[in-house]
Design a protein that fits this description.
RNA-binding; RNA binding; four-stranded antiparallel beta sheet; WD40/YVTN_repeat-like_dom_sf; transcription; repeat
Length: 653
């Protein structure tokens, strides 16, 4: 069965696209692609049988689909004898394909006529249809939706027979019991309903995210000595969105626990699940799970009571192209769906792209025993390296072209040759880290673990932890505990791994009942480290203060003085004599105050010189006047004026 519809923006919507094999001999494979088209392919010759475009394929895209059960065909002949109209209706149901849409309507498409048979609308759902299930006996149809309701349809009249509330949130998956009297429904919790009364018979814990798959795995209880009421003792399987664990539940009496009895672990979210029913307690259940990463995990297990440890796959199938050239590496081709044939031994694989898939039948499935030879890289326990494809005269194209013969899976697997010699110096590729980590933990290969655990890329560590299988989480934690007790440099890297593992896988670790004894050493180690943390933090703070002060003092000592010219330089004279040139040079370096004083002294000297000159001029004038006086006196003496009285002299003056 398909895990859910594609093309929905809701992060909690299932991955993949709606698809399913026809019942009985798996002659047809129907899929509703993201563009809203329904395509039906013939599995025998890989040819497109029909293509149907719904009128509202853009607004009301297909979200789920289901083939009418093959058991109606066996009841066709007796009904024809009773009434012709019933015979026509029942025969039409044999080839019907029910399509649920995003707007709440349900379409019934006839693959024989190649046209729409009828449409179920009135009184049904008013929101997206999440799952459709046909009743194997009466031809009724059951559907669930985001509107929280479950609807029982009469496909003859295209009317609602019954409608009831299935959950407080959206109902995402349905499954009818083998006897046709019970109905399983699931949102996050799982409920078992009595179809006749529409009452809840049992509750189950469910998943943390919306359940995308519900399938009954057994048709008889393990203890056949007790009377069988048709449901008690049966096992069923559930898968959920973003959950890498498939849980197995057992219908028990009322006072028993409601948790899962066992689980299967896969590498990614399941997008398509198919299984072979176990008809007795000694027959194992064969399970094929297609994951979102394009791999198929095959399980084979006898369901018999409680199993504590998650079960890993017996084999993993992955398809890859040989690549071009000698040095090219194989490129994986995603597997879209896988279904068991009626012989329970062969397997139909659908791979490639949704618009033109390749359908091939594997005659013998690899799910046998532990001695089976695995030809595919990426499986836990596979230690060989991939050797490049041998040179070919014609290069193989990975894309399928019309009119050309497609390469079979056998040829593709043969192209992936196994080389037993591997150089130790080769570094692992990024996408092989989860595989190398798992292999190293299983084989205790110290060198292989070093190649993975010594990485310092935080994004690579996170991707590796996300993709590693769940059964390897506890061994990885134990390996990290050993390495944490070693060299401090190695412990720094191990702390990054430990933090990522505890963050990513916290939900899985919380479900383990014996987690404390398994991780007792790690707890003790962490407690011993934490005890000294406070003292170390105090010491660390003091050391930081000391280092800061020492660094600051060293910086101040080592700082060079900035280059500046001195305005005044004073030097003691070595001798009394100093040249005029040196004095001039020193005077040039004096400040402007000394220059002004010199200028003032020069002005005073000039003034003194001028005064002296004036005084000299005055003296010269006085001397000239004295000489004139003496000349006049001598003349007077000659003229006899010297005998004059003093009085007369004064008068004359």
């Amino acid at each position: 069965m398909a895990a859910g519809g594609g093309g929905v923006a809701d992060p909690l919507s299932p991955a993949g696209v709606p698809c399913a094999f026809s019942p009985l001999n798996q002659a047809y494979f129907a899929l509703a692609s993201a563009d809203g088209l329904l395509r039906v392919w013939e599995t025998a010759n890989n040819r497109l049988h029909q293509e149907y475009v719904p009128s509202a394929h853009l607004s009301g895209t297909c979200t789920c689909l289901a083939w009418a059960p093959a058991r109606l065909q066996a009841k066709e002949s007796p009904q024809r004898k009773k009434r012709k109209s019933e015979a026509i209706g029942t025969s039409n149901q044999i080839d019907l394909l029910a399509l649920g849409t995003a707007v709440g309507s349900i379409l019934l498409y006839s693959t024989v006529k190649g046209e729409l048979h009828s449409k179920l609308i009135s009184g049904g759902h008013d929101n997206k249809v999440n799952c459709i299930q046909w009743h194997q006996d009466n031809g009724c149809l059951y559907s669930c939706s985001d509107d929280k309701h479950i609807v029982e349809w009469n496909t003859q009249t295209c009317k609602v027979k019954c409608k009831w509330k299935g959950d407080n949130s959206s109902v995402s998956s349905l499954c009818i019991s083998p006897d046709g009297k019970m109905l399983l429904s699931a949102g996050r919790t799982i409920k078992l309903w009595v179809l006749e009364t529409k009452e809840i018979y049992r509750h189950f814990t469910g998943h943390a995210t919306p359940v995308s798959s519900l399938i009954f795995t057994t048709i008889r209880p393990p203890n056949e000595s007790q009377p069988f009421d048709g449901i008690t003792g049966l096992y069923f399987l559930s898968g959920a969105v973003h959950d890498r664990l498939l849980n197995v539940w057992q219908v028990r009496s009322e006072n028993k626990e409601k948790n899962a009895v066992m689980s299967f672990t896969v590498t990614d979210e399941p997008v398509y699940i198919d299984l072979t029913l176990s008809e007795n307690k000694e027959e194992p259940v064969k399970l094929a799970v297609v994951c979102r990463d394009g791999q198929v995990h095959l399980f084979e297990h006898i369901l018999n009571g409680y199993c504590k440890k998650p079960l890993t796959s017996n084999c993993t199938i992955q398809i890859a192209t040989p690549g071009k050239g000698k040095k090219s590496t194989p490129k994986p081709i995603p597997i879209l769906a896988a279904g068991f044939c009626s012989d329970k031994m062969s397997l139909l694989l659908v791979y490639g792209n949704w618009f033109q898939p390749i359908i091939e039948r594997v005659v013998r499935t690899p799910v046998m025993n532990s001695e089976a030879k695995v030809l595919v890289p990426g499986v836990p326990g596979h230690h060989a390296a991939i050797k490049p494809a041998p040179p070919q005269t014609e290069e193989v194209e990975s894309k399928r072209k019309l009119g050309e013969n497609e390469i079979s899976i056998e040829e593709r697997l043969g192209a992936l040759d196994i080389d037993t010699k591997k150089e130790k110096d080769d570094l692992p590729q990024t996408n092989s880290f989860p595989v190398l980590l798992t292999q190293g933990l299983e084989s205790n290969d110290f060198e292989m673990l070093n190649k993975v655990l010594q990485t310092r890329n935080l994004n690579l560590i996170k991707r590796t932890v996300l993709r590693m299988p769940l059964h390897a989480v506890i061994p990885l934690l134990q390996e990290l505990t050993k390495r944490l007790q070693g060299h401090p440099n190695s412990a720094v890297l191990m702390v990054q791994w430990l933090k990522c593992v505890l963050t990513v896988h916290a939900s899985y670790l919380s479900t383990l009942p014996d987690l404390v004894p398994q991780l007792g050493t790690l707890y003790q180690l962490m407690e011993s480290r934490v005890k000294t943390f406070q003292k170390l933090s105090h010491l660390h703070g003091k050391l930081i203060l000391l280092i800061t002060q020492v660094t600051a003092s060293e910086k101040t000592k080592g700082m060079a003085c900035p280059a500046q010219k001195a305005k005044l330089v004073y030097e003691e004279e070595s001798s009394e004599e100093e040249s005029d040139d040196e004095i001039a040079e020193k005077d040039s370096d004096d400040n402007w105050d000394e220059d002004e004083e010199e200028k003032e002294s020069e002005k005073d000297e000039d003034l003194n010189e001028e005064n002296e000159e004036e005084e000299e001029d005055a003296e010269e004038k006085d001397e000239e006047n004295g000489e004139e006086d003496r000349d006049v006196a001598s003349e007077k003496e000659l003229n006899g004026d010297s005998d004059l009285d003093p009085e007369n002299e004064s008068e004359e003056e």
